[in-house]
Amino acid sequence: MSVELRERDFKAFFEAPFKAYGRNSPYVSPLKGDLKRLLSDRNPLVSGAGEGALTYFTAHRNGGVVGRITAHEHGASNRVHSVRLGYFGYFDCADDAEAGAALLEAAQAWCRARGLVEIAGNFNLTAMQQIGVVTEGFEHAPYLDQTWSPPHIARLLIENGFEQSFPMATMEVRGLQNAPDMGIGSKQQAVLDNPDFEFAPINQRTISQRIEEARLILNASFADNPMFVPVSAEEFHFQAKDMKWVMDKRISAVLHHKGQPAGCIICVPDMNPFLWRIRSRLGISTPWHFLRHRMTNKRAIVIFAGIMPELQGRGINPVILRHVMMNAKAAGYTEVGNTWIADVNPMSLAQAEKAGSSRMHRLHLFSKAL
């Protein structure tokens, strides 16, 4: 039976990866309600500062869903970088050549109709969220905010004329409890001895202020990175809406210099084992699974780290990283992962390795001229 495509069928879109990959797959979905919110017109990517547009498709065979994909435009990114680039994202599909080709062609046709000249992905949904397709390390279960895909996804893309580029890696510190504390050099000691530097308190009263400071640090420190677009307060708080409820305030850090934000590391408990158990659906047993996870979880994930440009080169990032890793160790965490680091950022890769990280996944973007 031939493949049927449907547009904006959210129920099928959510179910697609579970049907395509099976119950024992390492794949983890965002919560169903969160995914629906991300794909809605309330997302500032579409309705606000993102200046964009978005749709999504599902592929069906014999009455069952076998794959999905988004097609979207990040208008603000195209304007900032003077390109006409379309994105695809959430490309999850069974090992089905016809279904994969139909989904990819639907995304390409949508982008062509908008006058875009190239398509690239996965972007779930922008460069500051989950990006890439896994090309190595399929055996590793992803942390929160890491993407995962089986080997045939990259193959389907190549078979449909896409080329891989922009190599990235996710990293992980394993056995944190047995790892030696990070050493410090003269630069780092100078920061620790300087009374102008102090770690800002993170508690229920200050957390909203710390999150806003993290946004300011993100925008300033990533300004020269490829694909980056400054994140508006509306966009940041839309994406981080529930972060304050899952944060372990012991393992994130915002460093001030003379009372102003200087750098930060945002690190949160890994919620993926919990989401995997409940299949990202809320139900009667969800509170029990959540409490069990809170009591047993030993994994954390660094969402991002940044230093204000005028303070870079002074040894501040290792100071914050050491502070976070020592606190994570004291809190009983045994593994700490990070979101993607691009090969074009060798300093960040070196810093992760210095902290004792080893590679988990290899990822690439896949692109095609339209």
Structural class of the secondary elements? alpha+beta
Q: Tell me, what is the CATH class of the largest domain?
A: Alpha Beta
Largest sheet: 14 strands, mixed
Number of domains: 2
Secondary structure: number of strands: 16
Can you tell me the CATH architecture of the largest domain? 3-Layer(aba) Sandwich
Shape: globular
Query: Could you tell me how far the N terminus lies from the C terminus, measured between alpha carbons in angstroms?
Result: 29 Å
**Secondary-structure element order, N to C:** EHHHEEHEHEEEEHEHEHHHEEHHEHEEHE
Structure description:
It is a single chain. The mean pLDDT is 94. This protein is α+β, with helices and mostly antiparallel strands and 370 residues long. The strands form two sheets. Strands 1, 2, 3, 4, 5, 8, 9, 10, 11, 12, 13, 14, 15 and 16 form a 14-stranded mixed sheet that branches. It has helices at residues 10-21, 32-38, 44-47, 75-81, 97-113, 151-159, 186-193, 207-221, 233-239, 243-246, 272-278, 286-296, 316-330, 346-354; strands at 4-7, 53-61, 64-73, 85-93, 118-121, 123-124, 130-131, 133-136, 163-173, 197-199, 253-257, 260-269, 299-307, 335-338, 341-342, 357-369. Helix content is 36%, strand content 27%. The protein folds into two domains: 4-170, 3-Layer(aba) Sandwich (Aminopeptidase); 176-359, Aminopeptidase, CATH 3.40.630. The chain is built from 14 helices and 16 strands. Strand 11 and strand 12 form a beta hairpin. Helix 11 (272-278) packs antiparallel against helix 12.
